[in-house]
Amino acid sequence: MNILVTGGVGYIGSHTSVELLNNGHDVIIIDNLSNSKRETVGKIEQITQKKITFYQGDVTDKQALAKIFQAHHIDGVIHFAGLKAVGESVDKPLLYYQNNLISTMALAEACLTYEVKQFVFSSSATVYGDQTSPMHETMPLLSTTNPYGETKAMSERILQDVIKKHRKLSIVLLRYFNPVGAHSSGLLGEDPSGIPNNLVPYITKVAKGELEKLFVYGNDYDTVDGTGVRDYIHVVDLAKGHVAALEKLKSGLEIYNLGTGKGTSVLEMIEAFEAVNGISIPYQITERRPGDIATCYADVSKIKDQLGWSATLKVEDMLRDAWQFERQL
Ligand code: NAD
Ligand code: UFG
Is the CB–ligand 2 distance for residue 215 below 6 Å? Predict the structure, then answer.
């Protein structure tokens, strides 16, 4: 299949492009490089020994999309392009609504115009809000604590309405839990600019000596050791989940969680990092971070039963690969 990957130069998009190419699909990427680097395209090609067609452009630009859909017969799209920093979304709400909603609508419209059959959307476990884990796809969408999360919930609702009218399109909403880790080649990974907001990129910066210590946001949650529990998933497992979703897409709209089904606390993550990489991570317990919940992990039975996909890599693999990527930056 010819797959258009929006945001394909980014963290998850680059890993998914590798898995698509490895599974015999052709990949066309559109990315405005607002949060990624052009050289990643060459790295995807280096890993797979296959060529990609790359367009530097914005998914909110309908003319740029029309040019691509006219130049290629697109069988399916995977829509990763979006802004994702929770804190920034509170500071710049209009930027987030503009970028994340207009891109989804422009892409859906292009799919209808050019009769593309398959649409896969990057959603987030954040749409579940503060409900009791494991999170199941049938749970209601609760209001999220920030504009970023709202763009995901709104995009889901927009696509739910599109499918009611346009039955020839197949849509999959993939709700990611906490993607971490890097490609085993060490060529692809997550390299956020500035001080990382997320746990694993922060830990690897501490390991490298670029940050002095980790601040653990609260140890008084109702969890195994009082620190926050999340469902960390290796980005390569996550990428493979997209290929499974695309290849087995049925008509209509389906929602799948992409997680491991297992929760790990912040302190367990620190211990696992130290054990697998042999580097100690100094840390200090501080106040809870506003908007955080105690526990979030997935019920993964639906995707296993229906698509035969499940995560295979462990927290130790995630932390080893994340460190291998960080140390060569
Ligand atoms: P990323 O920032 O690494 O990748 C996103 C890519 O999209 C970047 O290369 C960026 O340059 C590009 N982009 C942004 N807006 C664009 C636009 N309007 N037009 C063209 N390109 C644009 O982020 P990621 O971690 O790879 O996330 C991919 C998707 O998955 C996002 O939609 C994100 O919200 C979602 N998601 C990520 C996580 C996570 O923890 N990483 C969790 C849940 C959901
Ligand atoms: N944490 C710390 N110190 C840090 C960073 C994080 O203690 O420096 C803790 C958090 O309090 C939380 C856990 O580590 O308990 C994980 O935090 P992350 O920021 O790595 O991830 P979140 O679960 O908060 O959020 C992530 C994405 C969101 C997405 C959400 C659900 O960043 O975009 O998962 O998918 F919405």
Answer: yes
Helix axes 266-277, 315-327, angle to 10 degrees: 60
The answer to whether the CB of 197 is under 6 A from ligand 2 is yes
Find out whether 8 and 14 touch, Cβ atoms under 8 Å. Answer: yes
Sequence-ordered list of residues with C-beta below 8 angstroms from that of 118, at least 6 positions apart, any chain: 75, 76, 77, 169, 170, 172, 246, 249
Residue 143: the pLDDT is: 77
pLDDT of residue 112: 97
Question: What's the rounded Cα separation, in Å, for the pair 117 and 169?
Answer: 5
pLDDT at 192: 84
* Cα dihedral sign, 173-63-41-98: negative
Q: What is the pLDDT of residue 235?
A: 98
Distance 269 CA to ligand 1 centre (A): 24
Sequence ranges of the domains in the chain: 2-180+232-259+300-311
Which ligand minimizes its atom distance to the CA of 7? 1
Amino acid at 144: T
Q: Give the DSSP letter string of 173-188.
A: EEEE-EEE---TTSSS
Cβ proximity of 313 and 258 under 8 Å = no
**Regions in the chain scoring below 50 on pLDDT:** none
Architecture of domain 2-180+232-259+300-311: 3-Layer(aba) Sandwich (3.40)
Q: What is the pTM of this model?
A: 0.98
Contact (Cβ atoms closer than 8 angstroms) between residue 176 and residue 121: no
Token match 């017969």: residue?
73
